Each structure stands twice: as C-alpha cells, then as structure tokens.
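General statements about sequence and structure are easier to judge against a single worked case. In the encoding step, the backbone of a single protein was reduced to a row of integers, each denoting a local shape. The record that follows shows the chain in one-letter code together with its fold in token form.
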Amino acid sequence: MWAEIICGLLIYKFVRRFFKDDEISDETSSDSTALFSVAHRLEKLYGGKAYVGLRIPDADTSSRQDIDLVLLTKGQVVVIGVKNLSGIVTVASDGSWVCEAGKHDTTQTYPDPLVEVKKQASVLESYLEQRGVTLLEENLSCKVVIPNPNFRTMHAFPSEVITYEEWKHLKPVSRKTLSGWVKGALWTGKEMQESSHQKLNFILGTAPMWDRVELKSSKIVLGEFLEFKGKQEDTLALKQIKRSKVDRISIQQTSMLGFAPSRLQVRYSYRDYRSEGRSGSESKEVTVRSSTEVVFQPRDSTKTKKFKLSSLLSISLSA
C-alpha cells in the first residue's frame, strides 16, 4: 500500500513538473489581461488602434510614465486608465478610491485614477510634441474604464469614469449615428489630417512599452524580460535573441510524452523599424529543452518570476 502511495506521489510530481503551467497569481495577471480585453473591445466599438502598456519618457522627472492604454482613432487620442477593481468602492475626501473586497474585507486605497490619467495625458502630449506632432485640445481626452463585473459603488463619478454598468452597455456605433454619450466619451466629430494620423500611429507603435508574456492558460503578464535560464547549450543557442533586433518569440512543442526530454521549437522574428516597430519577414528557429526558463520582472511587482518555456505561447519585446 505504501509503495503504491509513494509511486503515485512520484508520478504526480513528474506530471506537475513537466506539464503544469507556471503558477501566476490572479492579481499579477488579471490586470494585464483586462488591459488587452478592454483594448480589443474598444477597437471593435470605435475602430482605430489601441496601444497597450506604454512607458512614455517624462522629461520633468527623468523617468518613464506608465500608461495603461492609448486609443487612436481618426478624431481622437484617448488616454485610458483601466482599473480592474473588484469590491465595494468609496471615494475619500482627498479623492482617492477605497476598495473593500474579499471574505476578510481587505481594503486597498488607490490615488484618484482620473487625476493620474490626466497627468499621463500631459506627459504623452509633451512626448508627441518632441517627436513632431502637436495635438489640438479637442483631439486629446482622458478616460478611466472599470471592466470588472464585481465592481460596486454608490458614488456618482465624473463622466470621464466609465463604470462597469456603462461599460457593459456600450455598443458599436458609426460616426453618422453617434449618441450624445459616445460623443462626450470618445469622439469629438472632427477628424485629424491623414498625415498627422499616420505619424501618430508610427510614434505610438515605436514608443517604449512593457514586454509581455502570453501563457497557454490565456493569461497575459506585462513586465520586463530579463534573461533565459537553463542548460548552457540552450542558453547559448538563445543568445542571438536580443531586444534590439528581435521583437517577438513564439514557442511550440516538438515532442510528445515520452522518456526522452521534451524539446521546444523557439521561433524569433526580427524587428522592422520601418513599419511601426512591427516584426519583419525574417525569422529564425532554435530547439531547446522544455526545462529552459524565462526570467521576467512583472509590472508593479518587486519580485522576479520564472516561467518555463513550455508554459508560454509567446514573448513580445519592446525596443
């Protein structure tokens, strides 16, 4: 009997080691995943292009300003803060948001998100000016989106704050049938010149951004790629992957269950600086052990995280 139990534990550890996705807390990944979910929905609703996880240089502080999301349409540059809050939210006298959630009534306080996003918009406006584009006041706006269905509040927020109840009722619209609310929310009705719009697309497409890893579990984590860890043979094969040259890495398994170590096919695409920083047509492949790991620093975390390559679909690198 004891032999069967021990054997079962050994099999469980083996399977868990090689086939279970790396554990990543919901708090670490859900906020990043929510950003992309909001971005995709806004693109469907209003068209244009959404840029996620920007890190815009701030000349005043000599640091980088994190921006969750910028939606660029023909008529607007919309700077959007996404607050994936779950719980009951109240507003303190200083404007900060207090969120109570969980079985143990955990309380977290957040600086006024609208004040923060307006500051981010100011930094972005200065950055665009430095790169040759001056926006009209009517072409730049700010929003805070709350996409979490577990968000609750009795507070009346300004029109710039889109609560979950408003968010879930948004519908696709055309410029000819814009409702008054949508006009006030995301559209002024005045289009930019085509040359300015193209230049903005190029600037935002080549602006500094957070790196991202996409897990097989459909989770996305924003942060900074640090290095590969593993057998020397594998890390040497991966040394050609440098962020100055490569912008996307995709991972595929090349062998099924068996006694031999599983191998992974790693394909990396070279960056094309002529096309908004997107991947060029040239790519290369290497094959490495599935035990190879990615060392990653998640956004808003003080601890690094190791992901097995076997748990990932892709890695996107900022220039």
Notes: The radius of gyration is 22 Å. Residues 26-46 form the longest helix (21 residues). The helical segments are 2-19, 26-46, 113-130, 164-168, 180-186, 194-206, 232-237.
